[in-house]
Amino acid sequence: MRGANGDTLSDLEQLVQASRLYYELGETQSRVAELLGVTRPQVSRLLKRARAEGIVEIRIIDRTSEASPAADELRRRFGLHAVHLAPTVAGPEDVGRRMIGRLGAEVVRAAIRDGAVVGIGDGSSISAVADGLDEPTHETGATVLPLCGGYWFSGPAREPFRRVADGIGGTPLGLLAPGLVDDPATKASLYTHDGLRRILDLWGRLDVAAFGIGGPAWSEATFGAETCRDLQSGAAVGELLIAPYDVDGRFLADDLRARTIAFDARDLPKIPVRIGVAGGQAKVRPILGALRAGSLTTLVSDVRTAEAVVALDDAGAAA
User: What is the pLDDT of residues 13-63, one digit of tens each?
Assistant: First the structure.
């Protein structure tokens, strides 16, 4: 790569010059590409590397909001190891999800030790966490596997557990099975397969689990009419790893458990580090139910959602 004066640039100089042109001089990425004699996608990759390697540090000074006591309150009430809250931002739901996802990526990376066995859930929140992971700072050698079947992506994006493995320098191990089957006999048959047995063995040795906290998104097409009636009568508010529960943290629909190919959410307390990721008004009741179930050691959310969870818990205590 050559600079504007025609001199050949070293790798470090490329990163510094691209960063100065873009961040200090305010040039567009297209103009930076022209000046450095590269393509625009190459400039994008250079700027990403510059942030990952500490050449560029971006700080946002937020003077519009005060620190919320909700994090400490949730940690105290539910015996959590940590609560990490992103700022609540105005705009479409996906904007807030991306903010929480970037924070979740930092939390997940910090939780994983070399050689760990790591389980990753599915859903939009965990996909945002995977998106928030930059290039790994070193190879952890962690084994990264999905916590439930059904990772069938139709778009260009790879499954969240594979992208997390990329971001932490780990090795992905796939699970080629649906998340929900028609009957217990089918599940029993699949559980005899050597590939699935390997996953089951690793589920018993998980060091870290990161998963989304789902709302009531089930339908008769996925769960069946009878199960949906049971969930409605049981006042289900959310689900963890295809396991529905009510706002008091009681898991429901035991018949569904016999048809599910997933880590059993009832066994989440056996995992040392359990990171739940969710935010937004629609996730307030599901988050409270998951906390009351004792399913989390760490919550990643946003300030407004956390405050609403505290308020809902207060209302339940006063009732």
Answer: 888 888 888 888 888 888 888 888 888 888 888 888 888 888 887 665 554
Q: Which two structure tokens, joined as six digits, stand for 30?
A: 């297209």
- Rg of the chain on CA atoms, in Å: 22
Distance CA 236, CA 119 (A): 25
d(CA 261, CA 155): 23
pTM value > 0.85? no
Element containing residue 277 per DSSP (H, E): strand 273-277
Q: Which two tokens stand for residue 141?
A: 């050698």
Domains of the chain: 11-52 (1.10.10.10), 70-318 (3.40.50.1360)
Whole-number Å distance between alpha carbons of 281 and 216:
13
Q: Read off the tokens for 315.
A: 């209302």
Using one digit for the tens of pLDDT, what is the confidence trace for 178-229?
888 888 898 888 888 888 899 999 999 999 999 999 988 777 777 777 778 8
Phi, psi dihedral angles at 145 (to 5 degrees): -140, 155
DSSP of 16-32, one letter per residue?
A: HHHHIIIIIS---HHHH
Give the span between the Cα atoms of 220 and 254, in whole angstroms: 16
* Cα 210 to Cα 120: distance, rounded to the nearest angstrom: 5
Q: Report the C-alpha gap between 166 and 159 in whole angstroms.
A: 11
- Separation of first and last alpha carbons in the chain: 68
